[in-house]
Amino acid sequence: MNPGTTPPEVKLVLRPGAEPHHPQRKGWGARPFRITLTMAAGPVYFPANGSSMTAPILGLTETDFDAYLPERASSNAFSRPRLEFKQRALSWVRTVVSRLQDIDIAVDVHGSDEHPSVWNGHRVDCQWVFLWRDPDTRADLDALLDQRRGIAEALNDPSPFFRHAFLALRIDHESVEVCVQLHPNAWVDFETLRARLSDEPRARQVVEAIQDMPEQFSLGADRSSLVACSSIARASMLELLSQCATSASALWIGWRVPRAVAIEHTELLDEQLADALIALAPVYQQIAWSHGDDPAHIADKLAEMREDLSRAAAEHAARTERDRAEADRQRRETTEKSRERTRERVDYGAARPRPTLGNLFKPDSAAAAPKPQRPVSSPRPPSGSQRVPLRHPAEEPRRPPAPRAVPRQPEHPDHAEPIEKGSKVKVLSGAFAGKVGVVNELDARGGARILLGLLSTRVALEDLAVVTDQRDRPALQTSHRRPMPTARSPKEQRDK
Q: What mean pLDDT is reported for the chain?
């Protein structure tokens, strides 16, 4: 297309019925659509990775600073604005990471929690965006750092952010800053910096990197008693490190921008903060430990630590194997002793009878002498006569019947009747003496199963008496029957 000519238009008209019917859009396919596409006169470039053409911005506002006010630090209600700023800051700082890669400084990016958690003491009074060494190197150094950290220290400060030297962007309710920070807990980097300052040629490189900072940059112990970076010397650096180690405060080198200035120059501040991080990168290189620059011999300590870990793992594996072998030996000894005791009690060579139903669940003595059965009592004889007990036919040839005591007579001998199923009887002795029940069934052992209301029990026939006079028996009080009316005499009925 020649410049200056009118861009062509591409028109697309959707006629009725051209679109499929959608149940949620009534009449949508019945109306025509007109879509006009206008081609640009010049070429249009799109990024190859599909990202937005607009670079991410930090765009600090009053809301960003207010989210970190002290009275809001422990509230989850302001986690949303803090999260929004954190996402913007992480997107913006990745543009700085790409610039650091161009000068051969590889860093990893991480942001602190925007909500109250154990990592920040359940208070979010500031937001950190860290630029530090890669995760694999941090993991190796963390194992070495843990050797000098007790359980009490880990519980009081579980955050891992101050165990390494780092570049950072930080914001609170008063200011925004970019800095390099080194805490004494990061003793690997701390001893590395002290060893570099002990060597005069190496110390000159560290001091020159700090003196080359812009005049707005300063350094001090934990943001207090700050001095200009341009006025620093080797002796003052060593004295500052001793002060940080004594007071357990962090060495801080950076640029702090007050809130009012940041809001007034918000459009210019994004680029200024990015340039400040790039300027601080050489200082971070001079402070942080690396494999290629190791005056404190940290690599030897790492190798020794790995050897100790390998030796401890081998000892643990050998101890586990010994314990397992000892447990197997004790188990075999216990099993053999049990078998020996069984062989002493049981004669496996003796002939044993073939198991049958008669001797399978009984000992030999019980099988040889079966328990005699109780005789089955006959129905009660009429009044004035004695009951004659019946004997089982199988017992007749073995031994004569044993004499039996004369059974007790029922309470109502004038109305004695045979005990049958369904008879109403009275218990003469035992736990239910005096109770009246109903015979549910008779057994062949001279007893009967009696229903006593909700209970059922077996009673010998000789301890039962048939009840014939209903007026003398109280009504059964159960949950299944209604109380029976009391019988009235003929005189009471006439009087009524």
A: 78
